[in-house]
Amino acid sequence: MHPMHPTSSAQFEASRSGTVPAPEQVRDDVWAVAQRMPGGHLPYSLLYLLRDSDRAFHVIDPGWDSDANWDALTAVLTSLDASPADVRSITATHLHPDHIGLADRLRRASGAPLQLHETEAAAIGSPFVTPQAAEAVERLVETWGVPIERRREIVRVADQASRFVAPRADRTLVDGERLDIPGFDLRALLTPGHTSGHLCLREGARRLLFTGDHLLPMMHAGLGLGAPTASNPLADYLWGLQRVSAFSDHEVLPGHGYRFRGVTVRAAASAEHHLRRSREVVAVLADAPDSSNWEIAARLTWTAGWHNLTNFFLYSALAQTAMHRNYLERTAERL
Ligand SMILES: [Zn+2]
């Protein structure tokens, strides 16, 4: 197995220092453009620009909707003697605003269709992004055993999270489908887990793997952050990691951070990160089988410390704990 190593020192340095790297060329007809994100959690997402053999352009993950990001994309296109009107397709790996936000503005300027995996497209407008999200979470906090005085805080998070509604897709993609980009061999690779219909994109001729938020170099993907499904996000995610691991000779072009090689090693590390947490839940349940979700979460190790978790971080901690417990109930595998 190849060890993991960055393939762009500029992106690597930016990622380490919390700055935003300049746009850069990845291959003859592929560019990476860092798009700024508000909030300070992560400084940027990565937009990828592909130039097809007819000299038209295709965008993967246009980024957060802002004037600065619009200008950044326009500037790169201008430097290539083109404009947003030359964009022929927009593909989003998933429905989060830091990946799909700018899609609507780009679609209006270009007439290009926005495409997503069919599951992800269906998730847009599902109850989790409507006001019912708060009601659903109200029921959830009860079953999780959250003390009454902490419930409002969590329900409010769900209410706020449901404010962003991703733009509707014009086209849907299925697993394995080849995208219509002349001169490229780009195929959809379904990798659920982070969201239910998350897509990676694999370019076979250039050996590139666009991983969105499925596989990142500097952090591990959060899970179950899209529409709820009947399946377990961790089980889905582990399956998706196996899928991308098959392309060990590909360069990874992720949704944040820096491009790198060593997909197999990184996928194994991400699987281990999540399974370690599952094993922690196993240990708590072995000791106290009747624990509520709240009681389990309180006994797990959290980077920030359990007592410091509030608002979104508390909600996320409880949701992750519930996911691990559900995973253990479903899987007969020993961890
Ligand atoms: Zn995401």
Quick summary:
With 335 residues, this protein is an alpha/beta fold. The chain is built from eleven helices and 13 strands.
State the CATH superfamily name of the largest domain. Answer: Ribonuclease Z/Hydroxyacylglutathione hydrolase-like
> What is the end-to-end distance?
23 Å
Question: Count the strands?
Answer: 13
Tally of structural domains: 2
Q: Can you tell me the CATH class of the largest domain?
A: Alpha Beta
Question: Bound small molecules, which ones?
Answer: zinc ion
Strands ordered across the widest β-sheet = 2-3-4-5-6-7-8
Largest sheet: 7 strands, mixed
Strand content: 15-25%
| CATH architectural label of the largest domain | 4-Layer Sandwich
Unreliable residue stretches: none
CATH fold-level label of the largest domain: Metallo-beta-lactamase, Chain A
Overall outline: globular
- Return Rg in Å: 20 Å
Backbone structural class: alpha/beta
Helix-strand sequence: EHEEEEHEHHEHHHEEEEHEEHHH
